[in-house]
Amino acid sequence: MPNVTPGRPGLSGLNALSPPEAERELLSCCAAPAFARRVAGARPFADAATLGAAVREAVRGLSWPEVLEALSAHPRIGDRPAGEAREASWSRAEQSGTAGADRKVLAGLAAGNAEYERRFGHVYLVCATGLSAPEMLDRLRDRLGNDEDAERSVVREELAEIAALRALKLAKLAELAAGDAPGGGGRGGGGGETESGGSGGPGAHGRGDGDREGM
User: Fold this and answer.
1) What is the value of pTM for the model shown?
2) Among 150, 83, 143, which Cα is nearest to 113's?
3) What is d(CA 98, CA 136) in angstroms, rounded to the nearest whole number?
4) Residue 157's closest CA among 117, 97, 214?
5) Distance CA 3, CA 19 (A)
6) Alpha-carbon gap, residue 51 to 58, rounded angstroms
7) What whole-number distance in Å separates Cα of residue 214 and Cα of residue 174?
8) For this protein, what reaction is catalysed (predicted)?
9) pLDDT tens for the chain, residues 1 to 215
10) Could you tell me the fold of the domain covering 12-180?
């Protein structure tokens, strides 16, 4: 078992969740129940690197039907999901490189998405951290040349990176929620807002933070 320092910022809250709570929260990182079970069962995490490694390993261990289950929770690149749910907010932030993009690029993404889905049978997934809309489009066009096996490998790695970045966000939310709980002694006392902009703990699935991480 890892040597966990009590109260380590960003991890003690996630480590302290009950297994059902942890599994429920981890579904916002990757919407495959098998992933959530594996990562919840790998706790406690000593540091961010250990968390990231566990998340990536869990994604890489998913069957292809489980990967497809996770993909079903991701919007198309270029679509900006509405709503206050954490996953929708995270997706908007993650795809912020498409905000204000040239119309031709957005049209190219729409056409490319349709062609990709016809070819591979699922949405085009890319970890969009720091990518501009033209870069997302270039990667889409490059990947249309992959055969099915090669593309499945790429999808798995993209999903693993997205899940790892989201897990770090989740850990921060869980830490803030633990600090705001009665007797938690957290920053700013109880009842405050989480960094996601919504009140309450991670289970509220409130508005996500605005970091440009993942897709």
Assistant:
1) 0.76
2) 143
3) 9
4) 214
5) 19
6) 11
7) 19
8) 5-hydroxy-2-oxo-4-ureido-2,5-dihydro-1H-imidazole-5-carboxylate + H(+) = (S)-allantoin + CO2
9) 334 333 344 689 999 999 999 999 999 999 999 999 999 999 999 999 999 999 999 999 999 999 999 999 998 887 765 555 666 566 666 665 666 778 899 999 999 999 999 999 999 999 987 889 999 999 999 999 999 999 999 999 999 999 999 999 999 888 877 665 544 444 333 333 333 333 334 544 443 444 434 45
10) UraD-like (1.10.3330)
Q: What six digits make up the tokens of 50?
A: 């250990």
- Tell me how far apart the alpha carbons of residues 137 and 130 are, in angstroms, rounded to a whole number: 14
Q: Are 13 and 178 in contact (CB under 8 A)?
A: yes
- 1 CA to centre of own chain: 26
Spell 74-111 as b/e; 16+ CB within 10 A means b. Answer: bbbbbbeeeeebbbbbbbbbbbbbbeebeeebbebbee
DSSP 121: S
* Structure-token pair, residue 113: 């998405």
